[in-house]
Amino acid sequence: MLDGLDPEQREVATALHGPVCVLAGAGTGKTRAITHRIAYGVRAGILQPASVLAVTFTNRAAGEMRGRLRQLGVGGVQARTFHSAALRQLQYFWPRAVGGEVPRLVESKYPVVSEAASRCRLRLDRTELREVTGEIEWAKVTQTVPEDYPAALARAGREAARDPAEVGRIYAVYEQLKRDRGVIDFEDVLLLTVGVLEDQPAIADQVRGQYQHFVVDEYQDVSPLQQRLLDLWLGGRESLCVVGDASQTIYSFTGATPEHLLTFRARYPHATVVRLVRDYRSTPQVVHLANGLLAQARGRAAEHRLELVSQLDKGPAPVYAEYGDEPAEAEGTARRIRALLDAGVPASETAVLFRVNAQSEVYEQALADAGVPYQMRGTERFFERPEVREAIVALRGAARFGGNDALLDEAVGLAAQVRAVLSAKGWTPEPPAGSGAVRERWDALSALVRLAELFTESRAAAGAEATTLADFLAELDERAGAQHPPTVDSVTLASLHAAKGLEWDAVFLVGLAEGTMPITHARTEQQIEEERRLLYVGVTRARRHLTLSWSLARAPGSRATRRPSRFLNGLRPGSAASPRAAGAGGLVAGIERGAPGAGPGSGSGGPGGGEDRAPVRRRRVPVRCRVCGRTLTDPGEMKLSRCEDCPSDLDEALHERLHAWRSRQAELLRQPAFCVFTDKTLLAIAEAVPGTAAELAVVPGVGGRKLARFGADVLALCAGEEPPSAAAETPEEAAEDSPEK
Ligand code: ATP
Ligand code: MG
């Protein structure tokens, strides 16, 4: 357990009793040190697994911790977010503490805040609604009641979103509305747990009897409310280990503060305090950039910054890429990712990180067009998703009554059985059009299908004869118990906030233009500093390949008014010279403009090297609707070259044939259908009915690659003929690939 740790990390792992505080930069092995600490303590018989509670802040990070513990062979340790740990306790103790069931959790605060505002005769636009909701959240985690909000705001030196008295009134009505409806919000979960533990000593004793050792990852982001809950769990005991990095404080807008981390020593004078500076995650090139970003930081967190020292061999220089507009940036990013995948970087080791979720759509589209599988939100709380629960119930039913159903004949194979059961629940082999909730549901069910396939393969490799539905259900149970969701080999699209604590071989930080990074609504110096830290978190997610990009305009044809993020000044080549960047000697590549590969950095730093070279720089002109002439900005509409609601001259029969052909291809390639062509591209083909390769090539979404791969088939379909690929396939092959048919 201790072999894989350096001397300082080992100090953390072996200090099993007293309070321990680790202050260290990104990638220095904080999470590794605490997971090894737990594993070591369990193996040494000093810690009982069930008596350890490890907490962190995001579901993804909690999942990462569970995964690492599982790899170390430690089961039975609770690794959760504060929120899920509290919710669990609340659900368990509510009947005894209050009676009945825990009130329902509201999915979103916005409708309730909006209603509260109207009751106060105030109208909020979208931005105001977001700001007021943010203020209510801040007030709750700082434990400020509505009447005290204006005074607390002034005390905290926080900039008011609008008249503090008004916000206080909306806050009061919001709380009343929730009470009237018997619902609670996210923060109430913590507040109520705190309330139960404070008011009911017997329950507090029971919780403390269960959990005796506490570990907190990402402690820089603890809010006063979470700290209070932690103190209640501890009940004066000192078996506490916290790790954090003040330079990664990215939730202070919600009331989190690194003060708890920075003053740990003052609260526990005899604590073991360990500092780690060796960075094991990233190459010297990535670390140099991370250090450069922090060198310009100001404020309390910056006073405690630690210069990181990479332990890895040198890698490619970070690539800076400038594009004309957002779709071009997304396409360029997708092209680079494709080149990386072709060069052997796994899709699951690649991430595109952005500032706000709204940025994701254009990337989803571009990745789909490039045939790159992606997943939007990781697989957090996978087993709690309603569709996954329903699917498991259906699978159980099928396992019980399967004997009567021909489809569930064992000879058919597990994967086909799972597909058959899920099809009855509305799952289709190809994804639905568009993104959003429908797409997420499909992704979740598809992950189950994929898991069934992998499970069968791994059992066959281990020499098992036939894998039954019952075996698979047992595997699902085990995974659900260990909260070990299936991983999908796909590129991750995530917000910078959600990426905390995680790492990938290749990271693309996109949209790094003023207005997005820092975001427009960051106004005060503290808010700007938080944005800088957010970018630091992004940079330090990369192990080896790091690409930073921005675009000069939003849509094709709009004015190029944007500037690259101020945080890159002095780091980005050609920006106001800073001694750091100038003296970097090989650590910084040039900026690539427009088409990737065109810039001076492509040779030394561009991922995928020459393969990524796009020889022609396409001039971008506004795309207009071919029916009504309106300028299009939505990526999907741009692909269709018309507004979504303008009349279409679609060849319905061809569209259907293309769909059927695509499903077949997707099955053969064992890839999601959108990797062949997206729905939008299929529509565009069925509308254009291209007669030649040249005509097909200009349909948006059909690049050179796809033309070479699928061109002959598509042109044959358009000409009303059999696609050549169908003729090439033997009936046996076809039967093997679609056993359920
Ligand atoms: P963050 O601040 O981003 O959460 P962290 O400090 O928690 O980072 P880890 O995620 O624990 O860092 O470690 C970063 C990477 O370095 C991981 O891949 C980890 O396995 C590796 N690593 C850490 N310590 C060592 C070590 N002593 N030897 C080899 N690899 C290590
Ligand atoms: Mg970590």
Plain-language structure description:
By secondary structure, the chain is of the alpha/beta class. It has five domains: 7-90 and 191-276, Rossmann fold (3-Layer(aba) Sandwich); 107-184, Arc Repressor Mutant, subunit A, CATH 1.10.10; 309-381 and 489-594, P-loop containing nucleotide triphosphate hydrolases (Rossmann fold, 3-Layer(aba) Sandwich); 382-482, no CATH class; 635-737, HRDC domain (DNA polymerase, domain 1, Orthogonal Bundle). Helix content is 46%, strand content 11%. Strands 13-14-12-15-16-11-17 form a seven-stranded parallel beta sheet, with helices on both faces. It has a six-stranded parallel beta sheet with strand order 3-2-6-7-1-8, with helices on both faces. The longest helix is centred in the middle third of the chain and has 25 residues, at 437-461. The protein is globular, with a radius of gyration of 27 Å. The structure holds adenosine-5'-triphosphate and magnesium ion. The site of adenosine-5'-triphosphate has 19 residues, from helix 2. Residues 30-31, 217, 501 line the site of magnesium ion.
